[in-house]
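Hello forum,

I keep getting stuck at the same step: I have a sequence, I want structure tokens, and every attempt I make locally crashes halfway through. Rather than fight my setup again tonight, could one of you with a working pipeline run this one for me? It's a single chain of 125 residues.
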Amino acid sequence: MFSFSGFVKSLGIVLLVLITISFTVGLLNINHIGVLLTIMYSFTYVLNGVLAPLLNQRTPYFASYLSSITLTVLNLIVAIYLLDVMVLADPAEINRGLFMNSTISLLATFIVVMILKRKQRNSHA
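Reply #2:
Ran it on my machine without issues. Output:
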């Protein structure tokens, strides 16, 4: 069964880490914005993929996919309303973002699930 509280916890942790990283990068005053955004979002979606199976043991892939889509939509909303960037003007870019973000998150979830299965198998042996 899907754990909504685990879903909300993982989203909260990921958003808190994203805000902390953004604040730290802002304090360091690094000017390579493209590289920083790529690293920051990749780390965020990998963290999402790691936390999803830990907080939703029964449905790790669905939780990872749903939270990555939710994070992507939140990023689009922030880009539109806070930064005044017209991201909805290019549907191909939205599709690429949804695909890449959910792929990163699901790959991280797959790796974590395989590690957890291996640990469980070795502990019973």
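The chain has a mean pLDDT of 89. If your local run keeps crashing, start a new thread with the error log.
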